[in-house]
Structure prediction request, 453 residues.
Amino acid sequence: MKKSASILLVDDDSAFRHVMAGELKRFGFKVESAGSGEDALETAQQLKPDIVLLDLQMPGMNGMAVLQALRETNCPGEVIMLTGHGSIDTAIESIRLGAFDYVLKPCALEELQIRIQRALDNRSLRLRAKLLERGLTPPDLSGSFVGESQEFQKLLHLIELVAPTDSTVLITGETGSGKERAAKLIHARSTRSTRPFVVVECAALQESLLQSELFGHERGSFTGAEKSKLGLFEVADGGTIFLDEIGEVSPATQTKLLRVLDTSTFRHVGGTDEVHVDVRILAATNRDLSAMVRQGLFREDLYYRMSTITMSLPPLRERCGDVELLARHFVNSLNERFGSAKQISEQAMQMLLRHSWPGNVRELLHSVEAAMVVCEGDTILSEHLPPSIQASKPGAPPPSSEEGKLLTLEELERLHIKSTLEAAHGHRGNAAKTLGISERNLYRKLRDYGLLS
Prediction:
């Protein structure tokens, strides 16, 4: 029993109020009383009670009128109607208008205690659901989606066109270029903005676990499945699900995803019943899915279904004019977080401008944050920047091989991963964190590039 729960008892019978308030206090509740509907509304505004015990028949403002007024003022408490035998139909109507339950007067204290506990449990579930939904619903991030370059403005325009629709969107771009942020902005500008936005990191989950996370499972469907579990598609019902690194999923999971896209239905792992959901799907990848289709690694029908609209995020090196804008934006944001008032020096800014940014916007953010942390004064100097940034030479050509040829993007990524792993003294978890990718994704890249020791 919730001992600290507050109850507002509303009844015009003073003797009933006195006796009932005493019994409720004996149960451990905090009790306030009101003898009229008008007094009840005033007390409710001040007390914000967990439970309102509301008499249906009162002179002046009756219980139904009080109930409607409480709902209009968004009183957070659950309402239990107190009614006589001749008013049961009206009490039932009150439930349709928002009351949680009703009890007959005179009522047994044990029964009333049970009804109150049920109401408290229901209120707790409602509050938890609201908190969960609020946590799953990102704000409109347009204020932090910074850039003035032509490429970036084209991207913003495309987001404005795509967001209000329910079309599936495939977001492509290098690691750290802001794919998840773009997805959040699409959701925030959509008609589903008040509903959940659920992120699924496909590369971070093992195959069996990924299917269970996406589609849920029934009790006993596999070892360790001690109870049934909802899938993330069900959690996202009415909202948006974002499948990050969609290129990492297996052919078996691709088949199930295709069915969801085509029919909006799926089955729990180990289940037989069809589950229907209303979900918009956004996906992202840093891989070439069309090449994977040609190699037989990705289903062609799923690729065409996923890429109804394809949105390509430009790497930071292709929007060099945005580096200074982003750096100053990050400094301002971090000043707010740290409660500081630091500025970046011109020398440090020039060093940021000549860096090639293989880690894109995420690398820039981490570099600025690292500089602010080690900077003891009010001005960020070049020596406060990470060593990889300081090593960038003024006017230096892009990295090249020993033969003098320019490195391909793949070769550049291999080199960057290798140097990051060396800087982390071989610790894959720390290296993955620095690179802004999952440890599983890092392992795959190390394997593909022949860097596994």
Observations:
- The first strand starts at residue 6 and ends at 10.
- The longest helix spans residues 109-136.
- The chain has a mean pLDDT of 85.
